[in-house]
Write a structure and sequence with these properties.
Region (Disordered): 28-60
Keywords: Signal
Number of strands: 13
Structural class: alpha+beta
CATH topology: outer membrane lipoprotein receptor (LolB), chain A
Radius of gyration: 19 Å
CATH architecture: Clam
Protein name: Lipoprotein LprG
Number of domains: 1
Signal peptide: 1-23
């Protein structure tokens, strides 16, 4: 389970870089070859400091089987119409911070990501297009013209063809990456019980223990509440707003600059 958080976040960094390059390119075809190893992030929300109480090391009374909890959590997550998560992941010695909210199909998303050494970026995907905001470091890494590098907090509208990349921004895409990193065979049979920010959760862990990755799932709805990484790949993603109206809108026209 050690790559559970990292895989969910790395795709967003790669996508932000690809979209940033596309926005600055004369070509209408955005590249999708950005390496996920380039993704590092520090975004809008910091990792949740929600209190966690209880034990994940002993069998909780009345707990379902770990494999059943995993299956139900995956089913509910992938069936959700929308959701949000925020947190921090360390990748190859670099810190990635991310704040994500969006729909399952990726047509609507608002993602802030800060990549250590690669700058900060924000991607908003709505019906009329994809908008990218970045700091000077981010745009310089994309080879952006001086006008863009000096844009401050303004957004750049990506080429129309970038809409084809919105699937990479989908909640489902992130969740598939995350759940793809864990199988029932990797999960310990022991199920723990903890409270995360006031939510009573079942806790399933790697066979080597909670320190090698854990999944916190609400007892009442089997919704994912938290992913945690391992000692070698530390990280934490806290989830919220399942199936909620996230209120994502395009930036105001005054906040968008033209490259023309």
């Amino acid at each position: 389970m050690k790559n559970l958080t990292m895989r969910a976040v790395a795709v967003s960094g790669a996508c932000a870089i690809a979209l940033g390059a596309a926005a600055c390119s004369k070509s209408e075809t955005p590249t999708t070859t950005a390496s996920s190893s380039s993704a590092g992030a520090g975004a809008g929300r910091s990792p949740s400091s929600s209190a966690t109480t209880g034990s994940a090391s002993t069998d909780a009374k009345g707990a379902p089987q770990a494999a059943d909890i995993l299956a139900k959590a995956k089913t509910h997550a992938l069936a959700a119409s929308s959701g949000a998560f925020a947190g921090q992941v360390d990748q190859n010695g670099k810190t990635i911070n991310i704040d994500f909210k969006g729909t399952s199909d990726g047509k609507t998303a608002d993602i802030s990501i800060e990549m250590e050494g690669d700058g900060k970026a924000r991607v908003i995907s709505v019906a009329d297009g994809v908008y990218i905001q970045g700091d000077a470091t981010f745009w310089k890494k994309q080879g952006a013209p001086a006008k863009v590098q000096n844009a401050g907090d303004k957004f750049i509208k990506a080429p129309a063809s970038a809409a084809a990349m919105t699937q990479s921004l989908s909640l489902k895409s992130f969740l598939q990456k995350a759940f793809g990193a864990v199988t029932p065979q990797q999960v310990a049979k022991t199920v723990g019980s903890k409270s995360v920010g006031g939510v009573d959760c079942w806790v399933i862990t790697d066979k080597k223990g909670e320190g090698e990755g854990a999944l916190y799932v609400s007892k009442d709805t089997f919704q994912v509440v938290r992913f945690t990484g391992s000692k070698s790949n530390p990280g934490q993603l806290d989830f919220s707003d399942w199936n909620a109206d996230l209120g994502i809108k395009a930036p105001a026209a005054s906040q968008v600059i033209s490259l023309g």
